[in-house]
Amino acid sequence: MSGQVETATMPNRRGSLTLTVGLVLVGLHVAVALLTLMWTPYDPTGMSGGRLEAPSLAHWAGTDRLGRDLFTQIMIGSRIALIVGFGAVAIAATIGVTLGVLSAFATRYLDDILAAAFDILIAFPTLLLAMLVVAATESASLFSATLALGIAISAIVARLTRILAKRILSMDYITAARTAGASWPSIVFRHLLPNIWPMLAVNFALQFGLAVIAEASLSYLGLGAPPPNASWGRLLQEAQGTVYTAPFGAIAPGIALVTLVIGMNLLADGLRDAGDPTRRGRQ
Amino acid sequence: MSLLDIRGLTLSTGGQTLVSDVSFSIAPGERLGLIGESGSGKSLTALATIGLLPRGFRVQGSIKLDGHEVVGASESAMIALRGATAATVFQEPLTALNPLMKVGKQVAEPVVRRHRRAGETVDRAAVAREVHSLLERVSLPDIDRIVKSYPYEISGGQRQRVAIAMALACRPKLLIADEPTTALDVTTQVEILDLLSGLVREDDMALLFISHDLPVVARVTENVVVLRRGEVIERGQVHAVFDEPKHEYTRSLVDAATAFDKALGPAR
Ligand SMILES: Nc1ncnc2c1ncn2[C@@H]1O[C@H](COP(=O)(O)OP(=O)(O)OP(=O)(O)O)[C@@H](O)[C@H]1O
Ligand SMILES: [Mg+2]
């Protein structure tokens, strides 16, 4: 854990700046994603210009090799990325935190079994695991890709939760509370989760980014969201062949991906600082 | 009948026996010191008493807390027993409080729990008043500020007072204090010790006081049990043991403590 007290005002200002930038970046993507439900500049599936046009006022990000507007596809990609990212992290958090806390509370025997299971699952590449899950479902869809990534990531969350929880559970205030007759739900919800939450949140942001990237890979393999739900990963893959003649086809979705992933990480950092009284500024 | 009755307690883990055949008892209102060098098994014995040993320990013998057998008891039985019977104060003021919860809220928790158990309705103003009076009892200054503070915003000694207030909030029959002053400077140590022994007397609580310092133990308890490598090697009235240690090991503890004792001043 980091230092207990930060007296300088700098970190606080930095903290709120982090939060603001994170909020703006993620908020922008959320706003765009919501907008695409009602309106897009062009029809994402129809030709709206020449092939592989460079960015212009009419086509902010140029067009792809079928003459479709790239900016429109990137906007829709925001929606896909947010659904996959939030969905996968929500699934991973639910499964992972539950199993991790359970493991930390369990008898040594059960704990050993769970810990070994987490390690084995983590040893599988996330993508491979996700492919297996998708293969086990009926057909590839946005839902199956999200579920697959959520399950694959849950082992990572579970292992982290277990380690963090064990450290907190060995603290004197937990023992004191237990001596005083606190029940385990009260320990978990009042003491344990609030104290491991900051570390988990930062990890969730990281996993969010990895999920978005992994979904792109799944899409490439035909296991992600099927067209016309263009994910950034598919745009990147399509642009691969023409990266020398029309580099913007790869750069634009790349920028979108990077801003969302960075924004989410900044947001998590900012939220963690805001939730930690030792980091938060006093009036 | 004893409040706490430990018979032939043996604790082992991974083929190692860390506490062997320890027996002692504490009557209601009695103050007992458990003394011994670092690693002699004092904390393990205390944790066993309340059924909170780390996982993987084998417990043999019998521990009767307020007439209930602790060894082999279910967790739900222990939750009910612990709350009504025992409370603990630990050595390290830094980890004694939840760092993310304001002091007032933290002290309120055992207060609310006690009222709920008794089947009483809990009203917030009454809880706040009780929290305030508990913090007054542990002689904290500036209580209105402290209830709104986070643990990192108050001093180590103040944190330890808060921890004691939380233990008092349970109205336990037995207070277990595991080296509650070791991490504090000498003056603060004396203040906390005197506070603790005063409170224990006022509330007629029994006290299991753990320390490696004989003078510290002498200040708050009348009887003492000396542990060494997990075995009881000497026991009796604290001043008798202090003045005429029978065992070589106890004598070395006394010698080591004599210089320190001067700094502490006369016992109350
Ligand atoms: N979870 C554990 N697993 C294995 N051994 C342990 C565990 N906890 C404590 N021990 C060992 O048990 C012995 C007694 O430990 P204990 O904590 O009771 O000592 P202590 O008398 O309280 O010492 P101190 O004065 O340093 O607090 C030590 O040798 C310690 O290494
Ligand atoms: Mg100890």
Mind explaining what this structure looks like?
Chain A: Keywords: Cell membrane, Membrane, Transmembrane, Transmembrane helix, Transport. Chain A: One of its GO terms (cellular component) is plasma membrane. Chain A: This is Peptide/nickel transport system permease protein. The complex is a heterodimer of chains A (283) and B (268). Chain A is mainly α and 283 residues long. Chain A has a single domain (2-280), classed as MetI-like (MetI-like fold, Orthogonal Bundle), CATH 1.10.3720.10. Chain A is 71% helix and 0% strand. Chain A contains nine helices and no strands. In chain A, helix 2 packs antiparallel against helix 3 (108-123), helix 2 runs parallel beside helix 9 (248-275) and helix 5 (142-169) runs antiparallel to helix 7 (184-220). Chain A starts with 9 loop residues before the first helix and ends in an 8-residue tail after the last helix. Residues 1-10 of chain A have low confidence and may be disordered. Chain B is 43% helix and 24% strand. In chain B, helix 3 packs parallel to helix 6 and helix 4 (124-137) packs across helix 6. The relative contact order of chain B is 0.17. The radius of gyration of chain B is 18 Å and the shape is globular. Chain B has 268 residues and is of the alpha/beta class. In chain B, strands 6-7-8-3-9-10 form a six-stranded mixed sheet, sandwiched between helices. A four-stranded antiparallel sheet of chain B has the order 2-1-4-5, covered by helices on one side. Chain B has a single domain, classed as P-loop containing nucleotide triphosphate hydrolases (Rossmann fold), CATH 3.40.50. Classes of the chains: A mainly alpha (283), B alpha/beta (268). Chain A binds chain B through residues 4-5, 107-108, 111, 170-173, 175-184, 186, 190-191, 194-195, 275-278, and chain B through 47, 50, 52, 54-56, 75, 79-84, 86-92, 94-101, 109-110, 113, 117, 150, 152, 163, 166-167, 169-170, 172, 176. Adenosine-5'-triphosphate binds at residues 13, 18, 36, 38-44, 54, 212 of chain B.
